[in-house]
Design brief:
alpha/beta; three-stranded antiparallel sheet; DAGAT; transmembrane; membrane
Length: 340
């Protein structure tokens, strides 16, 4: 393996699998707890160390730089090319399938489904440097959208920005999809954090019927909508039962509304095979990128035209799922896409 000109000795298979497992563990810990760890680290350095002037300078810089996540981000290629991401992608493994050409004279909103727990397929394919995305779609600038929470915490925001992520806020999407720019791709988990409640093995339930904001933005900017489906995403974890109306479900919903994501009580595997833990299951994830849906630019789209293209999008998404589920899902004849 060679990364940025540095050669690494091959790792034998048993040890390589342990490294892959550890990288999958670090991924879930980083994105589940990274914000809180960085908040506490900043507080500790300010109040209990001699480094407080440097932290205050950084916080001043963070405030000055606060618009970057909404204005196209700031990618650090070396972060995307860290060997960590190779082992993370190989753990499942994560792969990408192309079904249509995407000319570089347009912008594309990749509408990614399902959200899963932490969008492993989306970030593995569109955030890491070990995906085929650049070779499959040369000339396109591929970015990923994520929750604002990641850009508010000190230090952690630089890591997320470096991976090519931007805010999922409307302002950020409109900036990238503006038709004055060409060749931008933004991967967006349309179902949002609420969809993670349904991320359970054998379940492909999406929150989409009332999610029409992405269609309105496509109409206003003239970008193309592209349905993207990650088969295997919901197989990574099981969850402690949380039926609607239960105490756990109410707590999760409250926390989602408060901080922007849903705290899920995971049932994964441990660092040692078959032990209990928060490591995702070693299950293949195949992200299939569908055909682009051309959307006419409409400065002030009516509810009727938004509904029309929302229905077109859902039809194309269901078609994409049904055309590929037999290749990537076990017992596929008994699995249907449920849209709520």
């Amino acid at each position: 393996m060679e990364t940025m000109g540095i050669k690494f000795a091959p790792i034998n298979t048993p040890f390589k699998r342990r490294v892959e497992t550890f990288c999958a563990f670090l991924w879930i810990v980083t994105f589940a707890f990274g914000n809180f760890i960085c908040y506490w680290l900043a507080a500790y350095l300010i109040f209990f160390s001699s480094y407080w002037p440097y932290v205050l300078l950084y916080l001043a810089w963070q405030y000055y730089d606060r618009e970057t996540p909404y204005k196209g981000g700031r990618r650090f290629t070396f972060l995307q090319k860290l060997p960590f991401w190779k082992y993370f992608n190989d753990y499942f493994p994560i792969s990408l399938e192309k079904t249509a050409e995407l000319p570089t004279d347009k912008n594309y909103l990749f509408c990614c489904h399902p959200h899963g727990i932490l969008c492993a397929g989306m970030f593995g394919n569109f955030g890491s440097g070990y995906s085929k995305v650049k070779s499959l779609y040369p000339g396109l600038n591929v970015l990923s959208a994520t929750i604002d929470l990641h850009f508010r915490s000190p230090f952690f925001r630089e890591y997320v920005l470096g991976l090519g992520a931007v805010s999922a806020a409307k302002e950020s999407i409109v900036y990238l999809m503006d038709d004055k720019k060409k060749g931008n791709v933004l991967a967006l988990a349309v179902g949002g954090a609420a969809e993670s409640f349904y991320a359970k093995p054998g379940s492909y339930k999406l929150i989409l019927k009332k999610r029409k904001g992405f269609v309105k933005i496509a109409l206003q900017t003239g970008c193309s909508l592209v349905p993207v489906f990650s088969f295997g995403e919901t197989e990574l974890y099981d969850q402690v039962p949380n039926p609607p109306g239960s105490l756990l479900n109410r707590i999760q919903t409250w926390m989602k509304d408060l901080i922007g994501f849903a705290p899920i009580v995971l049932k994964g595997r441990g660092l040692i095979q078959y032990s209990f833990g928060i490591v995702p299951m070693r299950t293949p994830i195949t992200t299939v990128v569908g055909k682009p849906i051309d959307i006419p630019k409409t400065a002030e789209p009516s509810d009727e035209i938004i509904q029309k293209y929302h229905a077109v999008y859902i039809d194309e998404l269901v078609k994409l799922f049904n055309e590929h589920k037999t290749k990537y899902l076990k017992d596929s004849e008994n699995i249907s896409l449920v849209i709520e």
